[in-house]
Amino acid sequence: MSRSDPVRTRYFTPLTRAELASDVLFYTGAALSIVVLLVDKTLRPTLHGSLMTVFAVSVAALFIITMVIRLYFAPRAADHRARDFVSSVYNVKLTHALTDGYYNNTLRTSEARLAAQVLENTHFSKAIVLAMVKDERIKVGIYATAWLITLLNRQASLDFILVGSQVVLSEQILSKWLRMEWLRSRCEAIYNDVYALFQSRPSEDTFNARALEAFGKYESAKANAAVTLSERIFQKQNNDLSSEWSDIKLALRMEQNP
């Protein structure tokens, strides 16, 4: 079966690159903020002034690219992914850039396909975010340990403590980790709800309403977490997760309409 994902290529790849650029700017700014403290502005005023200028430029650039990500790249990618999702559910072409082999179920009704696609998405998302957050936990642990050592060191200056606090409590360190943990938990909860929905086989109206509710929760979770799933981890786990998805469909008898 052919597989293609033009949505990721056209819209998520630029988003990922912009996020990488923001990370580079953040860590550059963090490093410069420490270096500036180590340079005596009285003995080396020119060097100190140059570092401060570069630091100010990196902060401004980080602000600009963060706003571009939040207001352009991320919403654009999310909108096209949602269009592709709905196009698959209702067998209509809301966009010319449609995925092939991205959603894998043969249910006949639109509501059943909606629920199945949410279940498939959360099945993949919770596994990918879990792999991502494991690395994030290590990074946060290293930064938090270094920060605590600085806090407990009586000889550490207040300036270093403030810089360390700014780095650890920033959007790219602590906040990112917490958002990942929340998204993983949210995806697991939505997955369990939809799985139970297929198991219970309620009335048609109840099934349809619960399926739509799950779709809304999933889209809301992605928007609130603002975490882009790793393409590298997706490719690494795709075969195993696809095999598990086949087992899930078989266990839930999903080829039959609920």
Overview of the structural elements:
Helices cover 80% and strands 0% of the residues. The protein has 2 domains: 1-97; 110-258, no CATH class. Helix 1 (6-38) packs antiparallel against helix 2. It has helices at residues 6-38, 45-90, 110-152, 158-168, 171-200, 204-225, 231-252. The protein is built from 7 helices and no strands. By secondary structure, the chain is an all-alpha fold. The chain crosses the membrane at residues 20-39, 51-73. Keywords: Membrane, Transmembrane, Transmembrane helix.
Sheet-strand content, in percent, reads under 5%
> What is the β-strand count?
0
- SSE run: HHHHHHH
Main sheet summary: none
What spatial form do the alpha-carbon principal axes imply? Answer: elongated
Indicate the structural class: mainly alpha
Quaternary status: single chain
Put simply, the count of helices is: 7
Estimated radius of gyration? 23 Å
How helix-rich are the residues, as a percent range?
Answer: over 70%
Distance between the termini: 26 Å
Count structural domains: 2
Q: Return residue spans where pLDDT drops below 50 for at least 5 consecutive residues.
A: none
Rounded mean pLDDT is 89
Keywords: Membrane, Transmembrane, Transmembrane helix
Transmembrane segments: 20-39, 51-73
